[in-house]
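protien #1 (seq + structre)
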Amino acid sequence: MSGGWLGRTAILLLMALVTVAPASADSPGSELKRLEDADETFTSPDGQVTVEQYQGKKGEDDLVYQFWTFDDKHEHGALLNPGEDIDLAGYRAGFRFSRNSQWLVRMQKLGAGYHTLFLYRRTGYQFSPATPKPLGEMAWDYFFSQPVSWKMHRKSRDRDSLNHKQVHLLQGMDDNYASMGKRWPDSRYVVLSLSFDSQGEQPKKPWIEGWRCVFDTKTGQFSIPSDFVDHNAQAVEFPQRRRR
């Protein structure tokens, strides 16, 4: 008798807990507005994953964005950028999948003239960060490890002082950069383009426009292919060159 009573009580308590428990975090929720233009939703080449963007208010005037991935039946969602505020998610983003649908690059505006990249790795229908910090920040770390950067520091140890610091994804990820004449292994490399300027500086120092490097998703390392060397030499701008 007592055992049956305890069992029924446990079942009732469990049902009550299930009733009041919050919904699992597998959907954006009704407080966010989905961006529904065709160019604001992205589908993987294999058709199994979709990236959607949602907009919410932050305070009275600011907007913050969430980026969600869903399976092809739209039954399971996963948030790409948990915990991000307006500093990293204050603008809508662009996305590019690798040809094999296993990698995802987020192209993120940070402000007027500022831009960075994030790289995600796929597991099932979900993507998780593939690097310990934004891929764009890692690209700057690599650039500042190169001799070309030694006279380009604006303030000692303060790379955020660079004017209009931008990292962009070079077009060609969808065909493994075959359009650039490459025959690289499928979806292994990501090509990045870095720029900053010397606006408002007196005296002006060198800056870069479209300096290129490659990130290897297999090794997690950056490099400069030999056929990028001449291009990168021309990407370094000197004040005296611009005065000519």
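ok now protien #2
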Amino acid sequence: MINNKVHSDQYFIEGLANNNSAIIQSIYKKFVPKVVSYIRNNSGDEDQAQDVVQDIMILLFNQAKAKQLQLTCPFDAYFFLLCKRKWLNELKKASNKGVTIQDDLTSTNEPTEEMVAQTEIFEEKQQLFDMMFQRLGEKCQEVLKWSFTLKSMEEVAEKLNVTYGYVRKKKSLCTGQLTQWIHEHSSFKSLKI
């Protein structure tokens, strides 16, 4: 049975969500060298390792900001496994060249595996949302972006110099269209949890 108790390393997640530079520096100092070493030992270079780390940091930031990240395992194992899987996926994409994997740092920690799986699903959902959001018209994107960042629809209406009624109706229509496209997309069913 998986232990769902929040791990004491949750402060790393909260630090990322709050864009705390001390926490972010701590992550880079404590955990990134292990990732860089792993990628360099497995057909990668320093730049590729930094790209993987950056992608994972952005993913964790987005998931933490969405309040969808409760750490149930050590941050070190979770972060490393996310980076490792990201790198292995990069290698699969570019599989036309020979690849040697030195996998002495594998993790069979169940809570870590579960956390990584949740984060990967979050990333897939985010990518689907972003792809469908880009299909919306410019006005829809603008209304939705402002409604995500401002506290009230009155503020959105004021910011866009339109009436409150217009903004409410437009947001409703745009959200409906976005939701429909997401639900109709072929990958949606596999992302449902």
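The first helix runs from residue 10 to 17.
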